[in-house]
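Notes to self after the Tuesday call (sharing in case useful).
The group wants a holo model before anyone commits to mutagenesis around the pocket. I volunteered. Ligand is 2-acetamido-2-deoxy-beta-D-glucopyranose. Logging inputs and output together so the record is complete.
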Amino acid sequence: MFQLSTVAVFALLPAFCLGAPAASATIASTSPFATSLWPAPQAITGNLTVGFGAAHIHDPSVILGPDGYYYSFSTHDGIAIGRSGTKGSLSGYWEHVGSVLPGKKSIISNSGSTDPWAPDVTLVNGVYYCYYAVSQFGSQNSAIGLATSATLLPGSWTDHGLVLGPSGPNAPFPLSITNAIDPALFIDPKTGVKYLSYGSFWGDIWQYEISGDGLHNTSFGNYGLLAPQWMSFDPVGAQAEEGSYQSYSAETGYYYQWYSHGICCGYNPNALPAPGME
Ligand SMILES: *[C@@H]1O[C@H](CO)[C@@H](O)[C@H](O)[C@H]1NC(C)=O
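Result:
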């Protein structure tokens, strides 16, 4: 993420919030906002002396590994890999076990390649896909890369480099008005179609439809605006957005767009906004 301390700040917005679902007969009766579907997170334990990658992580993506342990992937250390100490549990003691990127840097030729950001790890047909971002704080010159692995473990990853970007004024729309950071892969469980969302701190959250396998024979075709800043229902006004993810709930029949919203860093815990104005 462009702002590194927004890991726990997510806003929730159903994909169809501008109108009632058309096919209401196929939608379950559960409210899309039912908190039972999205229980509050619990504190975890882990190694805090190691620096980044164990219990102290930015921009995390967590996935269950083939060995039964949960793994985290996060910003810094060439995409840090963490592992929970207890099989099948997120609350085991988290350790830093290594890095995704060989040499702890991306093969993408772009400023920021020595400290990639905001990984997103997804299992696709037996292969783990790790999308990541290469950028620098305050820069729109950003790119999205991809590494793959069969096991999630350090040393098993191949960096395929650039898949989308770089963004910037001379890039094709919408990369010209956005920032190619914070990638997230979403595979529609109903259609199997793959989508990559990204952005942005620079013109909202956008999404591309991916044709092909996401690797070499890939094109980023149809695109769309997922989350305009003006739609965020923030009583203070439009705010920067970043770190998006999508999910689908069969229980509600809704697609969900999750993202960080607002400014981080340098915030004063003794002068918090009034309730409802956060
Ligand atoms: C925490 O990480 C440090 C650095 O890798 C290591 O030396 C130490 O043994 C770890 N602590 C525990 C309790 O595992």
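Two things stood out.
Residues 47, 49-50, 95 surround 2-acetamido-2-deoxy-beta-D-glucopyranose (CB under 6 Å).
The chain has no helices and 16 strands.
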